[in-house]
Amino acid sequence: MKMITYAGLAILGAVFSSTAFAGCGKTTSTNASVMLRQDKALAQQVFGEASEAHASRAQGGNIVGMWLNKVSIGGQEIYQAFESFTSDGLEILNDNGSPLEGNVCLGVWANGPAGTITVYHPSWSYDSNGNLVGTVVITEKITLDPGGSTFKGTFTIDVYDLAGFSIAPQTQGTLSAKRITA
Length: 182
Prior knowledge:
It is a single chain. With 182 residues, the protein is α+β, with helices and mostly antiparallel strands. The protein has a single domain (2-180), classed as Lipocalin. It contains 3 helices and 9 strands. The chain has helices at 2-16, 32-47, 50-59; strands at residues 20-23, 65-73, 76-85, 90-95, 104-111, 116-127, 132-144, 150-161, 171-180. It has an 8-stranded antiparallel beta barrel. A hairpin with a 5-residue loop joins strand 7 and strand 8.
């Protein structure tokens, strides 16, 4: 969630007041199967079959590792995050927002066309009382620098209610990251 969750939170706050937030930690069984079905087709489109994704990663750039990511909207940095990419296609993000709002979340990644990396990052969304109200879906398109020490990219944030209907305008922004090494 979360890498761009705070951008999603800012959008939700601006559009719907300050009563909604996204988080990765809480889930309820209410409508969870609806949300999983909603995101399944897009996740398959982005991530593809496991064997295809593995073959793609073997041929492409090496994003695997840990990164310090700066997230900007309209040229203004809105937050930072530690983002990790595993060799089997898992993306893990820990942003600098409050743990109470679910600042650690998961996504999937795959190599895309023309040396890009595509990330699909779904997140649960809650109201101020902790009730599940929908999802926030973040997609990223990243280009790794030739040396593999930095990347730049773009992201979009889409916000849905529990029925799967879009409830806010799509938000777009930019990413820039530097690899963290031991």
